[in-house]
Amino acid sequence: MPDNFSAHTPGAQFFHELRNAVRSENVRTDPAYCWAYSYDNSRRQNVPAVVVLPATHAQVAAVVTICNAHSVPVTARGLGTGTAGAAVPETGGLVLSTENMRNCKIDADNRVAVVQPGCINGDLQRAAAQHGFFWPPDPTSAEYSTIGGNLACNAAGPRAVKYGTPRENTLGLRAVTGDGVEIRSGCYTTKGVVGYDLTRLIIGSEGTLAVITEATLRLTPVAEGRRALRILYTSAAAAARAVSRIMAQSTVPCALEFTDAECLQLIRNYSGADIPAAARAMLIVEVDGRLDQLDTAAAAIAAAAAGEALLECRAAKNADETKLLWQARKALSPALRNIAPKKINEDVVVPVSRLGDFVVALKQISDTHGILIVAFGHAGNGNLHVNLLVDPDDTRQTQQIAACLQKVFATVIDFGGTLSGEHGIGYEKKEFVGLEIEPATLALMKRIKKEFDPGNILNPGKLFPSN
Ligand SMILES: Cc1cc2nc3c(=O)[nH]c(=O)nc-3n(C[C@H](O)[C@H](O)[C@H](O)COP(=O)(O)OP(=O)(O)OC[C@H]3O[C@@H](n4cnc5c(N)ncnc54)[C@H](O)[C@@H]3O)c2cc1C
Asked: How far apart are CA 223 and CA 286, in angstroms?
């Protein structure tokens, strides 16, 4: 018996049924193959007993039905880029990979795309662009993450500030519940109010309620033009306060990103960008729309950004300058990982009116616990990637991590925020969920989970606190 089989892995009959349900070359039990599906972008790892690669809805339904009958845990998997351990399977369980489900059909007349879950976000964007459309959710991982994964995490990116997340850009789903039953939610039209909104419920549920087998996505026309502004401040708190002024006026930016002083230094090092030494924070703000409206929109943003501690407000002169600005911003996550491989990355959200207070509070928490905290992110949504740059060889720091993290989360909740804006809960944050969701609501969520998945086979052990 291979090493990756656990005591509860079922026997030959289970594998025989799986091989009848999907082509036998798509049922993989060799340990080396299974190893590659045992981790995601968190530091967790559990090796599954089997990886199955179905190609159709009917095959997904058959696989889930078999797993339910044999009580084998199923973890749906896109490309494993999730950061919260949500795609990490149970040891000895089954990984249902959607790699063979990549189809994507554009219906331009209805501004709709119908996609299989394994379609890569970037592939969908290229198909939609041929018709003058895009699908707004734009995680930095767009070129190597799937629509199924994006939906299951409600993953988004800079554009969410104007165009919303998957929840606002999905019309309907086809899915398989834990007992192998097909369900369809939502509709094909941009209006519809029949029944409960199961689409929004399944989106963000991290594969714990159903396996998504098809999604009907709402497309948006690509704007005629975009203009990016680089806005520098001599104070991070002042820059964060400017965010709420920008969001309080009528020109909605299509991106509003914040970077603090430490991140600015990384950008200087990485890109050689000409950023004055006095700058302690930067906002990248982008507006889009008709070409003849861009000057007015940029002027409105500049007026709102002006004030306390402003050092410079400059519009990118051309597409190349805009591209450089975004390249530097997008390199931040990997650059931080290079300098602090064991960093802890949270993606908390606070109301934009509290961002200034939050940036001040983070500095205090950092000083108290002796751990460098750096922050950047989608400030227009109040969503900051808060990175604790922990040195694993510094015992004093490692002893402080838990208290430091607890204080960050407590502050977020105190300010009326939420623990995760887009990365999700998975294994990593589940013990903190009780800080945000009170017992009665949590109990209702557990009852809902039971209705969808009576055998508790769909991605068990995620999302809910252990006790
Ligand atoms: C460099 C980098 C940058 C990133 N940038 C961003 C960012 O800007 N914004 C952001 O939000 N995230 C970001 N992420 C996180 C990650 O890319 C997203 O969460 C993405 O949506 C995960 O997609 P995936 O295909 O890799 O899914 P996986 O990691 O394989 O799975 C994620 C979750 O989705 C579930 N799932 C997958 N397919 C299905 C399905 N068909 N049905 C039901 N459940 C399913 C899994 O069970 C798991 O719970 C980034 C990650 C990396 C490594």
From this structure: 12
40 lines ligand 1 (CB under 6 A): yes
From-to residues of CATH 3.30.465.10 in the chain: 104-221
CATH 3.30.70.2740 spans which residues of the chain?
337-421
- Whether residue 178 has its Cβ less than 6 Å from ligand 1: no
The residue whose CA has the least distance to atom 36 of ligand 1 is 149
Determine the pLDDT at residue 6. 60
* CATH architecture classification, 337-421: 2-Layer Sandwich (3.30)
Which residue's CA lies nearest to atom 16 of ligand 1?
A: 82
pLDDT at site 1 = 44
pLDDT for the residue 8: 58
pLDDT (0 to 100) of residue 4: 56
In the chain, residues under CATH classification 3.30.43.10 are 12-97
Find out whether the beta carbon of 149 lies less than 6 Å from any atom of ligand 1. yes
Helix residue ranges per DSSP H, 168-310: 198-202, 236-247, 261-271, 294-305
**Cα-to-centroid distance, 322 and ligand 1 (Å):** 27
d(CA 116, CA 113): 10
Q: Give the strands of the sheet with 50-52, arranged side by side.
A: 27-28, 50-52, 94-97, 74-77
| pLDDT confidence of residue 241 | 96
User: Domain 12-97, CATH 3.30.43.10 — does that match?
Assistant: yes
Q: Is the CB of 137 under 6 A from ligand 1?
A: no
Mutation to probe ligand 1, out of 44, 120, 140 (largest number of atoms < 8 A from CB): 140
Burial class (CB in 10 A: 0-12, 13-18, 19+), 261: middle
CB of 209 closer than 6 angstroms to any ligand 1 atom: no
Structure tokens at 154: 């409600």
Q: Is 459 in the pocket of ligand 1 (CB under 6 A)?
A: yes
Which fold is adopted by the domain 104-221?
A: 3.30.465
Cα of 241 vs centre of ligand 1, distance in Å, is 31
User: Strand, helix or coil at 325?
Assistant: helix
pLDDT of res. 7? 54
> Which residue among 81, 99, 174 is best mutated to probe the pocket of ligand 1, counting the most ligand atoms within 8 A of its Cβ?
81
The atom number, within ligand 1, closest to the CA of 158 reads 8
The rounded average pLDDT for each run of 10 residues, N- to C-terminus, in the chain (467 residues) is 58 95 96 97 94 98 98 98 96 97 98 98 98 96 97 96 98 98 97 96 98 98 96 97 97 97 86 87 96 96 97 90 82 78 90 96 95 94 94 86 94 97 94 96 98 98 93
Q: Which CATH number fits domain 225-333: 3.10.450.50, 1.10.510.10, 2.40.10.270, 3.30.70.2190?
A: 3.30.70.2190
Q: Which atom of ligand 1 lies at the shortest distance from residue 147's CA?
A: 25
CA distance 353 to 193: 33
Residue 338: predicted pLDDT: 79
